[in-house]
Structure formats: C-alpha cells, structure tokens
User: Fold Ubiquitin carboxyl-terminal hydrolase from Maylandia zebra.
Amino acid sequence: MAADLGELLVPYMPTIRVPRTGDRVFKSECAFSFDSPESEGGLYVCMNTFLGFGREHVERHYRKTGQSVYMHLKRHVKEVPAGGGAIPRRRNGKVFLDLELNRDFNGEDYEYEDEAKLVIFPDHFEIPLPNIEELPALVTIACDAVLNAPSAYKKQEPESWEEEIQVSRHARSLRQLDNGVRIPPSGWKCQKCEMRENLWLNLTDGAVLCGKWFFDGSGGNGHALEHYRETNYPLAVKLDTITPDGADIYSFEEEEAVLDPHVSEHLSHFGIDMLQMQKGTENGHHTDNKPRPRVSEWEVIQESGMKLKEVYGSGYTGIKNLGSSCYLSTVMQVLFSIPDFQRMYVGNLQRIFDYSPLDPTQDFATQMAKLGHGLLSGQYSKPPMKSELIEQVMKEEYKHQQKGISARMLKALVSRGHPEFSSNRQQDAHEFLLHMINLVERNSAGSENPSDVFRFLVEERVQCCQTRRVRYTQRVDYCIQLPAPFEAASNREELLAYEVKRKEAEENMRPPPEPVRARIPFTACLQAFTEPENVPDFWSSALQAKSAGVKTSRFASFPEYLVVQIKKFTFGVDWVPKKLDVVIDVPDFLDLNRLRATGLQAGEEELPDLMPPIVLPEDTRGMLNQLLKTPEIDEAAVMQLAEMGFPLEACRKAVYYTGNMGPEMAFNWIIAHMEEPDFAEPLTLPSMIDPGPSAGDSPTGAALLGNSPPEESIAILTSMGFPRTHSIHALKATNNNLERALDWIFTHPEEEEESDALSDMADTEPNDNAFSNANSHSDSTLSPDGDASGPRVKDGPGRYELFAFISHMGASTMSGHYVCHIKKEGRWVIYNDHKVCLSERPPKDLGYVYFYHRLSSS
Assistant:
C-alpha cells in the first residue's frame, strides 16, 4: 500500500510545496466565501499556494491552475449533553493548531473532532492523515507544516514581549503623611499647572500632579516627576485608572510600573474608596476625568432594555467585530444596502470570481463580491430550527445566537499600508467611508463605478468685499459636513444653568451635576452650513492686492445618494478628537433645491483671471536663478562629438543636457535621442521674462494646454523636488511659463489625481469646511475645455429620504462603538456587529453620518 501511495503521488510531487517563512496558510476561511473547516463541506487548502477554498470553489481553482493536491480540513462540532460533564476533546490534537474558530467554544459546552486528509483532483482520491509510514517524506513534511502553520491572519510579527509587573519594594513599608489631604471623586487638576489630563496621585503626601510629556504632544508637563526629585516620595497612582480591581501604579525610584498589594489601604488614607471608582477607559483609550458620557447614550443607540426581534435571511447578516472594527462593519452594511453596489459586486459575482487573479485574497473586486454575497445571500443568516427551539425551551435556556460573518480578509486588503486602518484601534467611520470610495474608484477604471452615486459638484462663489467682484469655481465632493451650532440650541437656558452648576461644583470640589445634552434644530445646522465664510489671505485680482473676501458654497449638482456628516467632533487640549454631546432632530425628508447653484448672475462682474505675484523663498529663488542663468557648455566636448559627424547643435544639446559630464555621457545621449524630429534644432532654453500669449487670452489656449511642456522646463521643476506629474500640470496650466508654473505649484499643493485627493482626505481629521473636501480640486478638475473625461455626476432634483444612519457611542473617534440603522422593506433594522434585529426606536437624533436617497421627481 505504501508503494501504491508513493507511486500515486509521484506525478504531483513537483506541485507540492513546504510552507516557507513568509508564506501565509489560509486554513480558516475560503478565499471566495465564508466557508471554514466547520462548514458542511469543510475547507480545501491547496498544497502549492496554501489558499483555502470551500467545496463550491475548489473546482474552479483546480481548473484555473491545474493544481491537483489539496488538504481537506473538517471540524465536527457536537454539543455536550447537559450534565454529561464531558471535557472538550480533540481527535488528532495538533491538526488545527492556531486555527481561528468560527464559534465561541465555552468551557464544557462542546466537544469537537478534527479530521484531515489529502484529496487528489479530479478523481477526488482521498488519503487520510496522518499517514507517515505510507506517504513520501516530502509530502509528510509538507502536510505537517501546513497543519502546524499559524493561521494567515495571525499577527505576522512576534507577540510583543512584556515583562511581568513586579511588586514594588516600597509597597509594604510606604510612609504616608497624616496631612489631612482628601481627594475628591472628580474635578482633579495639577497643583502646579492646572492641567486636567494624565494626573498622578502621590501616595505619600497626596499631591496631584501631571505626568510626563510624550513625543506626540500628549501627556503633561512632568510635574509628578519633579515632585519626586524634590521629596523622594516613590509611588504614584494614575487617577483615572482606579477601579475595584486595582490601578496603574508607577515607582519613580524603580523607574517602572509596579504592583501595590496594599493600594486599597493607601488610597483610603486620602478618602478614596476603590469599590466606588470606575476606570476612565473606553476600548483601551483613557479619557479625562470630566463627567463620563452618560450610559443612556449607549442604551438609547443600541436600544438596550428592549426585546428586539432578531431577523434572518437575505440582507440581514451581521458582521463579527474583529476588535474595534465596528466602523468597518457599519460602513459596509450601508454600502451593500445600495443597489449600485449590489449590482456591481454581487450581480457580477460569477464573472468576478471566474476572472479573479491567482491570489484572490489580494483582489479588491473579489473580496468585495465575497462580502456582498455573504451579506445578501442569506446563506449565513439562517433562523434556528423549530426542533432546536423546542428543545431549548424545554431546557429553559436559549443558546442560539446570530453568528455573522468575518470581514477579516477584506479588512486586511483595504487597510494594507494605511497607518490607522491597518491597526486594531477604533477609527472614524466617516474617514473609512471616504477611504472605501477612493478604493472603489481606483478599482473601477474602465468599468461601472458604483461610487458615482455619491459624487456631486460644488460651486464656490468668492467675492472681493471691496470691489464686489466675484469668481465662480467648481470642484468634486462626496459628502456635506453640517456644523452643530451650540448658540442655536433650543434648550440654551438649561445649558447655561448646567454650566454654572458645573463650575460651582468644580470650585467647591463637589461631584459635577448630571450633564445636559444640547438640542439643536436641523434647520440651524443647515443655516450655519449656508452662511458665507471668510477667505483667509484672500488676494483680489481686481485690486492686485490682499483684501477681505467671503466664500459661499452651493450644489452645482445633486447626488443620487447624499451623505451628511454631523460635525460632532472637535479637538481637546490633548489633541485627541472629543465628541460634542448634542442631539439633532434630523428629518426623514430633505429638500435642498433652494441650495442649487445659480452661476454668474446678471449684474455681477467677474474678478480678472490674474495670478498673484510670486514671492519665492530665498533658497528656491537662488536655485532657480542658478538653473536659468546662461549655461556654460564644454566646447571641447562639443567639438569632439562634432568630429564624429553629428550635427553641431545636437552636440551642444547633448553636452548641455548631460551637465558637462564629458563626451562619453553626451555620446550616449545622442544615441538615445537621434531619432527625435528636433534632434538637430538649435538649443532653446525656457524664458522667465517673455511668457508669450496667455492661454486664457488666446483662442487656441485650450489646444495649447493639451501639448506636452518642454522637457527642459519639466527637468528644472523636478530637479527642485516637485513630482513630475505635478510639474507637467503646472506648466500646462500656465502656458509653459516657469515663473507662473512655480507659483501655481505653491498655490496648488493639493492638485493631485482625484482619487489621491480623496485618499488624503480619508487620512485627516474633520475640518471646518462646509463640505467634506474629499476632493479639494480647483475648476481644472472639471475639464474646462469640455473634455468628456470630467467627473461623472448623476444630477437630479434635491429631494431626499433618509434610509440609513451610523451612530457613534463614546468620547471620541479613537474609542467607543458604532452601530447602524438601515430602513429595509419599510421598517428600520439595527445592525450591531453580528446582531441584526428589528428596531423599535431608531435614535435618529443621535446619529453621526446620515445617508439619504433621492426621491423621484414624480
């Protein structure tokens, strides 16, 4: 039998590989679906690429690649009978080492058996594993390596090594001064600098002082350390970490975090009862000692305390939380509730899968189609069987839970290379939405782009306050950002009274009063959005000098789906985004037709199309003068090349463009350029004095913009450190005039490709602009020459209906939790990670990002 197996595997031996360092083994999930070893058909792992495939997709991989040998992994899970006392057991104990389970195995509730075997396609010949005696050595080694390899999405880097925290040698004999100091439960501040963050309580004398400063601008002024150097009092506890379970304690003398077994006694010396303290953290991020966000926000948004009815089937599949990944879950749930995204990825599922690359885990369209199918098929959202429910009722227990699907493969792909989204920290859902739109656009070149439904044009009207002249420009955007004006709150008197009470409590070292949430009418947010704003450093081309200017923004087109972000976040003193505690009565129906742009009006006079004067930095000016001064050409090298029979002017250009590096370098330049039509034409240098006719003044200006700028001009700009594409854009926009091109570059630092600008926006915090500035393009983005390659917009009436909103709970975008509510089949549904239920009271007034769809004109 051993010889038979060896002979059977001989033809396939060249295709069987042993996983090397860096190879990822996908043995927990299919590349095209959410099948796993726990699925009915198990999982097939290719013994060459180590990709995993469910039963429905393994044949496709075999036909596409010709790989015939797969390892089939199957996990059989059984529930332990009540009172059986059985211990979860494994047959083949090391088979699925490091396998990420698709369910939570809890204590003695389950027993499971693992099974592995080699399968040879197309005949499906099976070889049970382990089978060391009968298999060739190479196959045995490869199988063992695959079975023991870590799962593909385990952290690639080694686990961070952390030294075990030791008990401080000062803990038992700590001397505490009987000075009558009592620490209040809140309102703390540094005794030396009034700082209210990163505060430490010295356990000897009760001094409350700030911690050290960190490189990112957080922390404090180091007064706690200064106090130790003055007094030698060794131990301090961080105030906002005290809980009934312990606290963060630091020993200045030992220079490390320590344990204090007597911390409860040491804190009670200053009137602190540990059992009454709550740790000021959310998802691992410390907040300050101001009043905590009310628990009611979490309860209201998640509709806690209500018996919500679970829903199952197509469109009602949840997404598992991978650890602070709820921002991704909510955005993807909303995107795949939009027909354009469903049609693009799920409607083309088979075509996308059939034409996927050899590694589908790295293909954007494949992973989007996989997630879309998982959410919309209903395959992973099935209600419990009636027999199962009856049995659970008889046992007076209910264990069935919605499992949801894991977006781990998509998250790894879309966050690759991004410093924030690739981490396990909480992120801003609005920023991730813009990031996803950017990726969709980049991966939709030459095909349908579902993100077109969000794109619209913004008309910006800038007016010189002195001359009253105006300028109109247009740019692309994807979202409007509405401010939350506190001064317009309908309960302003209540807010003022609360502020008075809060200050009194702080001064008298008393607990703060119950927070009051500002109620702001949506009409006030819209009014603040439409008001004119000052233009900083406005240069009036009419006056040819700096002047006061105001800007207003209107919709040049209305998108099919309107995204509205409420600007709830601002920056605290520690530069951490903090959330404004407000409620806004967001309407179900929205009519924005009055905000449609009107363009240049009768009686309005446009500002002249002039550029402001250039003020170059000294180093840049010196470099430019050096580059543009009359060139020195090595005439000896020129004559040496001319004697070889090359045209004299071509020789001069060769020596000039190679920087007088000698006849050999110039000769190479001649060989590379001798087929060019202007090879023998005289050397011409770019001029800073004679710009020639302006493209705007010439009837052929548009045609001039389409010509490629002189290579020598591009070389000068790129030698100054500017990107080549940026330099070409600048020269085209200024009719190849170097001086104006330089100014254009300085005044258009953001002029990149549309998708790049959008990506940059996704990496920034919310700004003060009325629109999202997802694309901060000037009017050049809109193809002023009428080119059809301009941005595609789906314009229509500005009447909308609310169909989804994402809500945030917590103090800042760096912490907390997201859920979303989506209106489906006339009823609101709450998506809270893997749980999907009918909503009883959708908290529309506490949302963060709102999604509207356009109403038909009928």
Observations:
- DSSP finds 24 helices and 30 strands in the chain.
- The mean pLDDT is 80.
- Residues 421 and 810 are 19 Å apart (CA to CA).
- Residues 711-748 form a domain with the Helicase, Ruva Protein; domain 3 fold (CATH 1.10.8.10).
